[in-house]
From TrEMBL:
Its main location: other. The gene is flgI. It is found in: Bacterial flagellum basal body. Residues 1-22 form the signal peptide. GO terms for molecular function: structural molecule activity. This is Flagellar P-ring protein. It comes from Hoeflea prorocentri. InterPro entries: Flag_FlgI (IPR001782). The basal body constitutes a major portion of the flagellar organelle and consists of four rings (L,P,S, and M) mounted on a central rod. HAMAP family: FlgI.
């Protein structure tokens, strides 16, 4: 894939000399179905904030959580209101990696759910993390790292990044393992990250070439565009067999696709994008309106009044408008033809949309 974003034609030519496709390892283009992650979630409190926490009036659940935490610690609040401007209620999320063992640590993300203005300098107190089955699999605690910051004065406030979300690296300890008997599987299912029939067949062929030499049989077959099923050979452990398959290389294939982000002016084209022969003309109409009012001053002792007479100057200019013939047998020729028109990326976006409407763009057009 090649990205175009305010890039001169010379640089585009340098980018296009890259090879069309390169061999990729199977482990980089697929994932093992039985080795999946599991999402964890929990509700907790971040304490130690410098007055940037939740307000009692707008976040009553924070005050309730503080009282419940103090009661669990043996401190009786006796119905008094708790000041929570140094505390923030947060949602804690994490991904439990496959084959995780008890005692290992994982990173967690912390996001404010009240009206706190910043989590910088806060500490996440012990928060249980549960999965979709309601069981607790990890417990999180630690200092919250926030990349954004806020500086405020009497007349101005400067905010950079997000101050109401952060991370706790290694902040959760796994307390329960997900039951998984990986070594007992008779089949392995590899899922393609980018489903494609050609790539799935190439992966199956590469695995069969390896197993044919190593184990004397073809053990892989492509079930569809997203999965490749591999039978387990005898007299070899499953982790070793998976390691052998992951190191195999294949030539991946992708559909012809043009991705356009109109907000940022970014254009990404796949190498297989083709354009049938078509003539394109692109011109920009600019209308400039200038107001130049004229002050009319009466003669002395004439009894007149000063008046303002409007004067408007309107100019219309057309830039570009040249006609270019585009014929893209390959991506380099297509980009060179677009650059020859001399338009900006927003103009190229309009041209590509027009070529697609004319039926000359032999690729899928994706607008973001």
């Amino acid at each position: 894939m090649i990205a175009l974003r305010l890039v001169p034609a010379i640089l585009l030519s340098l980018l296009l000399v890259l090879p069309a496709s390169a061999a990729s390892r199977i482990k980089d283009v697929t994932s093992l179905q039985s080795a999946r992650q599991n999402q964890l979630i929990g509700y907790g409190l971040v304490i130690g904030l410098q007055g940037s926490g939740d307000s009692a009036g707008r976040s009553p659940f924070t005050e309730q959580s503080v009282r419940a935490m103090l009661e669990n610690l043996g401190i009786a609040t006796e119905g008094e209101r708790a000041r929570v401007n140094n505390v923030a209620a947060v949602i804690v999320t994490a991904d439990l990696p496959p084959f995780s063992s008890v005692g290992s640590r994982i990173d967690v993300s912390v996001s404010s759910m009240g009206d706190a203005t910043s989590l910088r300098g806060g500490t996440l107190v012990m928060t249980p993390l549960s999965a979709a089955d309601g069981q607790i699999y990890a417990v999180a605690q630690g200092s919250v790292i926030v990349s954004g910051f806020t500086a405020a004065g009497d007349a101005q406030t400067l905010t950079q990044g997000v101050t109401t979300a952060g991370r706790v690296p290694g902040g959760a300890i796994i307390e329960r393992e997900i039951p998984m008997r990986f070594s007992d599987n008779e089949h392995l299912v590899f899922q393609l990250r980018n489903p494609d029939f050609s790539t799935a067949v190439s992966i199956a062929d590469a695995i069969n070439r390896h197993t044919g030499k190593q184990y004397g049989g073809m053990l892989a077959q492509a079930d569809d565009s997203a999965t490749v099923r591999v039978s387990r050979p005898k007299h070899v452990t499953l982790p070793r067999f998976v390691a052998e398959i992951e190191r195999l290389t294949v030539e991946t294939d992708t559909p012809a696709r043009v991705v356009i982000n109109e907000r940022s002016g970014t254009i990404v084209m796949g190498h297989d994008v083709r354009v049938s022969k078509v003539a394109v003309s692109h011109g920009t109409l600019t209308i400039r309106v200038t107001e130049m009012p004229v002050i009319s001053q009466p003669l002395p002792f004439s009894g007149g009044v000063t008046a303002v007479e409007p004067l408007t100057d309107i100019q219309a200019m057309t830039e570009g408008g040249q006609v270019a013939i585009l014929n893209g047998p390959n991506l380099q020729t297509l980009v060179a033809g677009l650059n020859s028109i001399g338009v900006r990326p927003d103009g190229i976006i309009s041209i590509l949309q027009g070529i697609k409407s004319a039926g000359a763009l032999q690729a899928e057009l994706v607008l973001q």
